[in-house]
Hints:
It is a single chain. The chain is α+β, with helices and mostly antiparallel strands and 219 residues long. Helices cover 15% and strands 30% of the residues. The chain has one helix at 2-33, and strands at 35-39, 54-58, 72-76, 85-86, 89-90, 96-97, 110-117, 122-125, 132-134, 137-139, 155-158, 163-167, 189-190, 194-203, 209-211, 217-218. The longest helix has 32 residues, at 2-33. It comes from Arthrobacter alpinus. One of its GO terms (molecular function) is serine-type endopeptidase activity.
Amino acid sequence: xxxxxxxxxxxxxxxxxxxxxxxxxxxxxxxxxxVDVYYIPSExxxxxxxxxxxxxxxRTAFATQPIERGDVxxxxxxxxxxxxxxxxxxxxxxxxxxxxxxxxxxNNNVYVKRVLGVAGDTVKCCSASGLxxxxxxxxxxxxxxxxDEPSALTFEVSVPQGKLWLMGDHRSVSLDSRSLLGAPxxxxxxxxxxxxxxxxxxxxxxxxxxxxxxxxxLP
Length: 219
């Protein structure tokens, strides 16, 4: 009778370990194929995303539609944004994957920014009226952080095929494509580096809401 009980306990623990392993495999599959959660540590995308927010990112957001001007994208900055530095230290403007919560090594090369230029666009700052210009047309940016100007840095960039020009909504504190104008690649990001787009703010509780690809939010 005792031996049967021991055998039963062994089978029970094996089942528990198998169940836990399957759960981790399932979560890893979900995170790498469909959705992942990222922590926002900086203020560069305010007022849309606040420091301390946790956002759900869809990895399939652009599977059936192209990336367009105005879209908010999460992307891997290796080979482009990786040299970014600020007074707060290297990679101060990056975001952190939820994998860090599970004890895994996080990828600190991930960023979230807004697309201001796609292939064929010429992005310039600023127009005579102080607005960002895209293909010669002044653009009113309703998503800008209150009180921020489109850019304190003047620039004019032509975006080649397969590249994106990206900027944060809180322009006065954002490290973005403008910060890399003199670096290799000129601040342009490859579309192949795009991971996905934020689709919801999931934490803190008071800020749970949907986020659309164009960066508008529904509280």
